[in-house]
Amino acid sequence: MQDDISPVDFSCRSLAAQAMGRIDPVTRAVVMPLHVATTFIRDPDNGYSSGYSYARPDNATVREAEAVIAMLEGAQAGAMLFGSGMAAATAVFGALEPGDHVVAGTVMYWALKRWLRTEMPRRGITVDFVATDDLDALRAAIRPGQTKLVWIETPGNPLWTVTDIAAAAEIARSAGARLAVDSTAASPFHTRPLDLGADIVMHSATKILNGHSDVVAGVLAAAKADGFWERIAGIRAGSGGILGPFEAYLLMRSLRTFHLRAAAQSAGAMRLALALRGHPHVARILYPGLDDDPGYAVAARQMRDGFGFMLSIRVAGGEAAAIGTAARVRLWKRATSLGGVESLIEHRASVEGPDSPCPPDLLRLSTGIEDPVDLYRDLDAALRGAHGD
Ligand SMILES: *Cc1c(COP(=O)(O)O)cnc(C)c1O
């Protein structure tokens, strides 16, 4: 039989490479067709035997990509794709009730933090931000009976602090709360939060899952199909947050090479971090793969096959030298976002504003698939230029 490859028999890498081995039953094509229809024929008996009726709640091409991501995350309840990472994340918070309490990390995606600060009070939901890499601080922030959600991001953007997922899951569970993990920077290549006890994992699929800087998408995957997950599905269907079929098709195309890209990008990041150690113009490297990083011990436990494609450096000459370095690179691209095959550099404090934990001398580096030797030489020349060497 060529139509099905069993998830039991083969690894994630093999299953993703073949997009779950699905074959189009009509043409026998090895690539599934792109479904763009917004509406579907009703059966004479008034039912919808195909399972599809209208494209806002559901789409067959979106389901293909969701199946691959659910497999990568080991998500028993499946995955749901959204029009952006923010749409996915905000759907989780949207499923909470007035009066609920949330604990979230101080180091997290800045636009989501800003959204939580403005939108959650309007819905009668209180959010406390704590350093979730400090488990005592996390434990102390929980209000038993009232805290319904713990939201962590690990490694956390843009300082790449590491939170112990298994410990956070235990703290959340013992208080009757759910744990959701923004795992965008780790990706399922390095970490599977659901295996470690998390209830929901979220990704900006705009980043390394798609990896080609040409799709904005977000995804949630869940361990359990409970009432909370159903409510999130209702929010996606009702608010029209589903990903478009063209984007889902592009995302699935990218997922076929996900393992190759993630391996190359994390190996490149590690080489850069090691090469930058001791650089005269780098005051500090923030990368959980370095054995003197405060997050190393936990990262070594919960990340496998490397530590991800993201690192930051603090430039010795301060903010002006950091901006000057970003101004001088040629191979690195001076742009926001992360996870693409092209390497990006960004002066993050310029984006995040005054209430961010990001220091002004920090440059965020997203490692692509270029030759790491070229990436180092380009960055080294820019650092030297910015310091007047
Ligand atoms: C980019 C990003 C988001 C938001 O995703 P969008 O796809 O831009 O909406 C959330 N979390 C992290 C860690 C991100 O990097």
Automatic annotation (TrEMBL):
InterPro entries reported in the protein's UniProt record: Cys/Met-Metab_PyrdxlP-dep_enz, Cys_met_metab_PP, PyrdxlP-dep_Trfase, PyrdxlP-dep_Trfase_major, PyrdxlP-dep_Trfase_small
EC number: 2.5.1.48
Keyword set, alphabetical order: Pyridoxal phosphate, Transferase
Cofactor: pyridoxal 5'-phosphate
SUPFAM superfamilies the UniProt entry points to: PLP-dependent transferases
GO molecular function, one term: cystathionine gamma-synthase activity
Family: Belongs to the trans-sulfuration enzymes family.
Protein name: Cystathionine gamma-synthase
Native organism: Methylobacterium persicinum
